[in-house]
Amino acid sequence: MTAKLLDLLIAARPRQWVKNLFVFAAPVFAVRFVEPEVMLRSLLAFFALSCASSGVYLVNDVVDRDADRQHPDKRKRPLAAGRLSVTDCALLALGFWIVAAALLLLLRTPAAIVVVIAYIALNLAYSLYFKHKVVIDVLLLALGFVLRVLLGGVANHIEVSPWLILCTFLLAMFLGFSKRRHELLVLENNAHMHRRILSEYEPYFLDQMIAVTTASTFLSYCLYTILTPTFQYMEATIPFVAYGILRYLYLVHRREKGGDPTEVVLSDRGLLLNLLLWIVLVFALAGYSR
């Protein structure tokens, strides 16, 4: 029984909840993060979205279980490995969505409910159909990150800067194309067996897309900090963003990483330290500007 509970926890992928920290972006950049009510509402939104995303991951595992068995790493997932059944995953997904609904009701913000429903619908559409459409698959993944940022805004009645949305979208595109490149190289001739869309991609094309999104992400962030800064001396954070992007590129091209952005960030000391320093600086500058 204990082993099965552990497998259920693994299948829910709580480590991926790190991505939902984007919910806090709007309150931080609006310099509202120290307000107790804002932090409480942001936490409720974060856990609601995390439960919703775990439900999506479980459904995705059900849809991809046969393809996952062809992947050197994903075949170890509980469902693909046969340690969990489809029914187990379906019931757990339903349970997560019920919890997410309860947390959203506590927010009493209809717009937040709409955003989370849109997030679930977007990801289900991706899992069931659009993940087989070249470029659109990465676009939809990027829109998922935009919805995370928007949730943090609507949950706290904060207007989200278009620059923040643009930076988030481009960064997610960069990570998405890097992930496709990693999958293509690691799986080699079996790539199409794991993910059909990989037969439409090839390294040179992905390198071009990565180059475009890398430059666009960095330039957009620079313009954001200089033209419409949300707190004083925001441009001081630019070097950390530059290093983070370039370090990630190094890991993608020289260390053949990038398959799981969360894993890359958490496992690389240089990248993790840089991220922590960026967070500390952003909080310090935002606090100074209050």
CATH architectural label of the largest domain: Orthogonal Bundle
Largest sheet: none
- The CATH homologous superfamily of the largest domain is named UbiA prenyltransferase
CATH class designation of the largest domain: Mainly Alpha
What sequence of helices (H) and strands (E) makes up the elements? HHHHHHHHHHHHH
Silhouette? globular
CATH topology of the largest domain: Tetracycline Repressor, domain 2
Using only C-alpha atoms, the radius of gyration works out to 19 Å
Number of domains: 2
| Helix amount | over 70%
Unreliable residue runs: none
The structure class reads: mainly alpha
Overview of this protein structure:
There is one protein chain. With 290 residues, the chain is mainly alpha-helical. It folds into two domains: 18-160, UbiA prenyltransferase (Tetracycline Repressor, domain 2); 161-290. It is built from 13 helices and no strands. The protein has helices at residues 2-12, 25-29, 36-63, 65-68, 86-107, 110-128, 136-155, 162-187, 191-194, 203-227, 238-254, 261-267, 269-289. Helix 3 (36-63) packs antiparallel against helix 7 and helix 6 (110-128) runs antiparallel to helix 7 (136-155). The radius of gyration is 19 Å and the shape is globular. The protein starts with a helix and ends with a helix. The mean pLDDT is 88.
